[in-house]
């Protein structure tokens, strides 16, 4: 069958042949004699039918269409078809059900078959330099009556670069596991707000999409977007007024957006650690907005610090517990009968114990502390400064309830007694979690607000108290 396929396309060169030759015009190592090039393809296809093979790579050898025996490749997990003159994929893509990655580059493809949605194991789909491809199949993924997801349910990365794609199908919103969407240097002219409903989307790269004139509003989008790249979208005119709702954004690249005349004022409420890159004519606007953000952040940090200091005064000077209603004394001789005496008896402290052992929390603490300080100056003064920096770094690394002793046992646990030292550590834990939320507002769902009970006046006979909530997070 492969030899028959070879003879057929050796005689019928039609559209594929010129596309194949053009794609390889700058590659002197490509076999120019069509019959020999097709023979090389058949050899590679035959080799790929071996059960132990997991990948097929056809680069610069002709594959106008797949042969009828393509089902013999059903065991493959990875497939790359590059500069092969490929005109179309089989209508029965389900015969490649084992594919996890599919790369199609520099081919005269005009359409993708609807059956590509049957590749339920596909994690990465990359289509590059296929300018005749103007649309994607309508049904990439869907949800049936029972709530089960069907289609490209495991797709994590979709890359469309230098294609003819002008819009995305509505079913793009059903790609529940999509983490990265890159549509580069393509005539994409519109993008719907449903893109922000993708629950795992972390990267959206639209660089070079010069037909795009606006970016959609965020509304109540739940996408945990970290990177939004709009670089060289030269006809982009507006950004959404609610761009601050991208609460996890770490990078926004607007360089090359020469027709974008103004930045929305709420860009100031993007996370303080978000890197924003703009064209020169917008730099002054950005600086002004970011100054507002810095001032807001300063106020929030001051409130966290002031609240922590008031709590410490309550614990140390007043000998009272700010995590209990009424802030009763924790001293055995002063506390009212029935007052909790251990961490596990107080919901707030129990919750913070659980948080302190969560890998996400510990990673945030590590990120906030940064790498271990290095010696930069070996002079006496430089070494003294280094030791101070190391001491501060260690203190920040351990400013929570999840520290362990030399045996690897947790120092603080449900049975830990309430005293000045343990409650002071709980205050440190509260402060650390609030600093994390201030830097990452989206973490408030993991580290919820607590009502604190801080006496209005720090004195031995102070009976009144105020209920203090944590420093307010930025609007979301």
TrEMBL record:
<protein>
    <recommendedName>
        <fullName>Type III effector Xcv3220-like C-terminal domain-containing protein</fullName>
    </recommendedName>
</protein>
<feature type="domain" description="Type III effector Xcv3220-like C-terminal">
    <location>
        <begin position="296"/>
        <end position="453"/>
    </location>
</feature>
<dbReference type="Pfam" id="PF20817">
    <property type="entry name" value="XopL_C"/>
</dbReference>
<dbReference type="InterPro" id="IPR050216">
    <property type="entry name" value="LRR_domain-containing"/>
</dbReference>
<keyword id="KW-0677">Repeat</keyword>
<dbReference type="InterPro" id="IPR048490">
    <property type="entry name" value="XopL_C"/>
</dbReference>
<keyword id="KW-0433">Leucine-rich repeat</keyword>
<feature type="compositionally biased region" description="Polar residues">
    <location>
        <begin position="467"/>
        <end position="476"/>
    </location>
</feature>
<dbReference type="InterPro" id="IPR003591">
    <property type="entry name" value="Leu-rich_rpt_typical-subtyp"/>
</dbReference>
<dbReference type="GO" id="GO:0005737">
    <property type="term" value="C:cytoplasm"/>
</dbReference>
<feature type="region of interest" description="Disordered">
    <location>
        <begin position="453"/>
        <end position="476"/>
    </location>
</feature>
<dbReference type="InterPro" id="IPR001611">
    <property type="entry name" value="Leu-rich_rpt"/>
</dbReference>
<dbReference type="InterPro" id="IPR032675">
    <property type="entry name" value="LRR_dom_sf"/>
</dbReference>
<dbReference type="Pfam" id="PF13855">
    <property type="entry name" value="LRR_8"/>
</dbReference>
